[in-house]
Every structure is written in structure tokens, then in C-alpha cells.
Amino acid sequence: MDLIPNPESPNSDNASGPHLSVIGTASSSSTPPSLSRYESQKRRDWNTFGQYLKNHRPPLSLARCSGAHVLEFLRYLDQFGKTKVHTPVCPFFGHPAPPAPCPCPLRQAWGSLDALVGRLRAAYEENGGKPENNPFGARAVRLYLREVREHQAKARGISYEKKKRKKPPTRDQTPPPGPAGTTAAATS
Questions:
Q1: pLDDT tens string for the chain (188 positions)?
Q2: What DSSP designation does 31 have?
Q3: Residue limits of the ALOG domain (predicted)?
Q4: Which of 59, 70, 128, 151 is most buried, by CB atoms within 10 Å?
Q5: Cβ pair 144, 68 in contact under 8 A
Q6: How many other C-beta atoms can be found within 10 angstroms of the C-beta atom of residue 154?
Q7: Cβ neighbour number for residue 123 with a 10 Å cutoff
Q8: Which helix (H) or strand (E) holds 2?
Q9: Is the pTM of this model over 0.70?
Q10: Residue 177 DSSP class
Q11: Cα–Cα distance measured from residue 133 to residue 135, given in angstroms and rounded to the nearest whole number
Q12: Closest Cα to residue 109, out of 86, 81, 136?
């Protein structure tokens, strides 16, 4: 970041010297700095949710929004999903790679919903909402996400359980004992 004179400053009569502003090197004083991909997505998601509240019948204010409205929004988004989620009656239910197409519905993937809720939860608080009133952190929303994850895991036959990674051996560890309790170094 550079400190540069700001001629557009309201007190830039230069009587007391130039006023300095902190701005990024890649931006000018007339355009805001570009947002990160996460921040852009968060803003886009927040605007989409705001539009959803505005179009809701009857229209909802953010202050009256609850976890139930968030669930309604998440279910509404399912129609735009791209993840095939097999129904229990589908012959491919539980198969991670089905050999043929089926008429099962496309839904939002659990990971996408989880990330969306996280971004909206942060955006709610950044826009003046109190953490204890955050509808995106409601118990019903957390339970819904858990149900979606479990259902999609069963439908695909894939577990979402986190796998524990084995720690690679460090260089200063002694090698495992070889035959008859001798080390590999002693036998060579």
C-alpha cells in the first residue's frame, strides 16, 4: 500500500500540506479495491437472499426472518441444483457410479449448501445482525444440513466421514525391527 496525496480530499487547500490517503497500488481513488472471490460470492449470496425475502409472499424484513425462512430458501435453491440424488426406489440408490441414466432429481450438493449457509451467516453479522439472532445459525438449519448430508451419502453410497490421515514417519525415527528383533541397519 502506498501513501499518496489525495487531491479530492475536502481539506485539500494545501495550506497545511497535502492530505494523505491509504490506497492499494492497483486501484485508483475513484474505484473501490477488488474483492476476493469469497467476498464477491458472499455479497452475491447476500443479495440473492435479500431478493428472495423481497419476493416472498408476504414480503419479509430481515428482522422477521427465522430459521424456517432459511430452510424455505434452501429448498427453493434445490431446483437449480446439478447433483443427481437417487431416491430410495431407484435401482442405483447407494451406487457411487451408476452405469446408466435415471430419472432421479437434481439437487444442490450438501457441500454447496453448507458453504452457502456459512457465507450467509457471516454476511448477516457483517450487515448489522446480532449473532444470537442469526437465522443461518439456527438449530433447524444445522439439522437440515446434517439430514441432507446423510441422505446424499446414502444415495451415493459414499460416506462423508472424515478419514484420519496416517502421519508419515519422520527421519529421526528408528526403523521398525526386522527379523528376530534386529533392526534393518544391523542386518545389512
A1: 333 334 443 343 444 333 333 333 444 455 567 889 999 999 999 999 999 999 999 888 888 999 999 999 999 999 999 988 888 898 988 888 888 888 888 899 999 999 999 999 999 999 988 999 999 999 999 999 999 999 998 888 765 565 567 776 666 655 566 565 555 554 54
A2: S
A3: 37-164
A4: 70
A5: no
A6: 15
A7: 20
A8: strand 2-5
A9: no
A10: B
A11: 6
A12: 81
What the block records as the C-alpha cell of 165 is 490421515
Instruction: Say what the alpha-carbon torsion angle 101, 107, 112, 113 is, to the nearest 10 degrees.
Output: -160
User: Are 14 and 36 spatial neighbours (Cβ–Cβ below 8 Å)?
Assistant: no
Q: Amino acid letter at 4?
A: I
Distance CA 90, CA 151 (A): 14
Q: Is 163 helix (H, G, I), strand (E, B) or coil?
A: coil
Which residue is it, cell 477488488? 34
